[in-house]
Specification:
This protein has 257 residues and is mainly α. It folds into two domains: 118 residues, no CATH class; 129 residues, Alpha Horseshoe (Serine Threonine Protein Phosphatase 5, Tetratricopeptide repeat), CATH 1.25.40. It has twelve helices and no strands. It is elongated and about 80 Å long. Keywords: Membrane, Transmembrane, Transmembrane helix. InterPro entries: TPR-like_helical_dom_sf.
């Protein structure tokens, strides 16, 4: 007889065993067993180390999901699948093995795999929030705009970007400096006024102030925020290595690659 044919029943039995385990684990955690059923299940855990290890892994996975608020629908789908499979599982006081079809187990396994991909393999693409550590503003200008500058500095440094933008726009009407434009552009970028922010950064990039390379990096972050990774990389590669924050440039390039 073909050895593959002989091994098929064994594979089916293993699948049935895993189906059974998923159902038992979930029903125990959800407190859906009778007192007698709990005693039997707990004794099985004491006697079967492999079953106990699988149960611990199952609980850890569920615990992780409970802490991931964005996965509510996936958790519900997972438990709904288990409930559907196990709805006829207990009809007596003692748990019994149900000969479930492998197709059902594969459905549950697919849900578990999907959850695993979400929880343990988050997107590897770099995130804007991981790289937008811009410097604080420290204005030392004197004159008619002193109070506005103080308020703009405070608003910017406390991340009240909408207020900062309004103040910067008022200040820039009186004095167009690269410093004010730079922090104005950052504020715009932070509240997703990306196009306007890029226009200001482009203007600074075309100049020769000390904010030129900072503006180029700002343009790269604007592309990052829009998930335009190739454009972000191309801009980063134009920044000279003597840029004061070049370690951040290298870190972002590595994250993109």
């Amino acid at each position: 007889m073909d050895s593959r044919a002989q091994s098929l029943p064994i594979i089916k039995n293993k699948l049935a065993m895993k189906e059974e385990n998923y159902i038992l684990f979930d029903q125990y955690i959800q407190n859906e067993m009778t007192v007698d059923q709990k005693v039997i299940f707990e004794n099985q855990l004491l006697e079967d180390q492999e079953l106990a290890a699988a149960f611990i892994s199952f609980k850890e996975t569920i615990s992780l999901l409970e802490n991931k608020l964005s996965f509510d629908e996936e958790r519900s789908a997972f438990r709904e699948s288990l409930h559907t499979i196990g709805s006829e599982h207990y009809k007596t006081k003692k748990p019994k093995v149900v000969n479930l079809k492998p197709l059902f187990f594969l459905a549950v396994a697919s849900v578990v795999l999907l959850l695993g991909l979400f929880v343990f393999n988050p997107s590897s693409d770099p995130n804007f929030k991981d790289f937008n550590q811009f410097e604080e503003a420290h204005f030392v200008e004197r004159g008619t705009s002193t109070e506005n500058l103080k308020q703009a500095e405070q608003a910017y440094n406390t991340k009240n970007y909408k207020k900062a933008i309004s103040l910067f726009e008022s200040i820039l009407k009186e004095k167009q400096t690269a410093e004010f434009q730079y922090f104005y552009a950052i504020s715009l970028l932070e509240i997703n006024k990306t196009s306007k922010s890029e226009a200001v950064f482009q203007k600074l990039k075309s100049g020769n102030s000390i904010y030129k390379n900072k503006a180029i990096y700002g343009l790269a972050l604007a592309k990052l925020k829009q998930k335009e990774y190739q454009s972000c990389k191309e801009i980063l590669l134009t920044i000279p290595k003597d840029y004061e924050n070049y370690d951040a440039v290298e870190k972002l390039l590595k994250a993109i690659d």
